[in-house]
Amino acid sequence: xxxxxxxxxxxxxxxxxxxxxxxxxxxxxxxxxxxxxxxxxxxxxxxxxxxxxxxxxxxxxxxxxxxxxxxxxxxxxxxxxxxxxxxxxxxxxxxxxxxxxxxxxxxxxxxxxxxxxxxxxxxxxxxxxxxxxxxxxxxxxxxxxxxxxxxxxxxxxxxxxxxxxxxxxxxxxxxxxxxxxxxxxxxxxxxxxxxxxxxxxxxxxxxxxxxxxxxxxxxxxxxxxxxxxxxxxxxxxxxxxxxxxxxxxxxxxxxxxxxxxxxxxxxxxxxxxxxxxxxxxxxxxxxxxxxxxxxxxxxxxxxxxxxxxxxxxxxxxxxxxxxxxxxxxxxxxxxxxxxxxxxxxxxxxxxxxxxxxxxxxxxxxxxxxxxxxxxxxxxxxxxxxxxxxxxxxxxxxxxxxxxxxxxxxxxxxxx
Length: 415
Fold this sequence. Notes:
Blueprint: H1 7-27, H2 30-48, H3 70-75, E1 81-85, E2 88-92, H4 94-100, H5 109-112, H6 116-122, E3 134-137, E4 145-152, E5 158-164, H7 166-201, H8 208-240, E6 248-250, H9 252-265, E7 274-278, E8 285-287, H10 289-306, E9 313-319, E10 324-330, H11 353-358, H12 365-375, E11 379-385, E12 389-401, E13 407-410
Parallel strand pairs: 7-9
Antiparallel strand pairs: 1-2, 1-5, 3-4, 4-5, 6-8, 9-10, 10-12, 11-12, 12-13
Helix pairs in contact: 1-2, 7-8, 8-12, 9-10, 10-12
């Protein structure tokens, strides 16, 4: 500041001060003297080219890291995203490169996404490529389904966003298959009942032997429909309650004995082959007694159906090292080929449809067991060897009673 205001400026200021003092002496008016002093100072500043108005405060310099690059922003997005400029892929995040390959950077977008509808959308003139989303099949793996959405940017570039719809498609396919299978399973026995009823009405009922045989078939098919409807209702109820954790205390040892007694009282001769191995000091589990009983009936019933006649159906109950209660049901049957095991808990899935229907199965037993186990926050495992048999294991968290007698489920303890 001192270097900028030289001697001439200082003399000017001194002159202004003298003028102000003279005005005060002559007039005795302080405001007039101050006006003369300020006027002199302003005149001096204007002469030097200095703006007397208050200077606007300087904007503080930006601190911290620079704005994130576009690539860094794209990498933070978990779904595949591409930025397209001039018909070529300018940027692509890691998810996009995992699906389409690392070579797509700089590549013609029609080669990067090899799909006619996608190519037409991505190369359309500005404003015409952002309408409805399109569905793509074949990107990544053959069974993956994608939804492509395109957005134009003000600078002429274009953003392509791929949304994975594989799970949604699979859920919809399962729903459609479920409706189709349920309709078929109900239609088949119903057609038999109607056919035999019409035959009896046409005069076949005059023969007592034929009438009795037809009536037996009709009764069997009606019971088959009844079992199927009951299983469908049961499955729907269990799914509706899947997020409500059961809180009653259930002694699985007592429940196994109860189910064993019920099966022994039935007309099924295989019930005599049931062998129960219940370990001592097995804690109760927090659960729904009716649902756990249903799961036991389904598992033991399957072992009785598919195990070879005269071989044991083994029911084991114990507590494992992770504080889970382990319940397993094993048979000595023909076993299940490994490729079928992942699908056994699907609704209406059968390894041998003809044999399953002949034995009275509805195709929903293991699906019901799976949903019951999921509601109880447990785990279901299926192990099988062809020619040797199958073992189905349920792991459920043990229940521990607190001092207030409330039941608390206790899962596996951390290692």
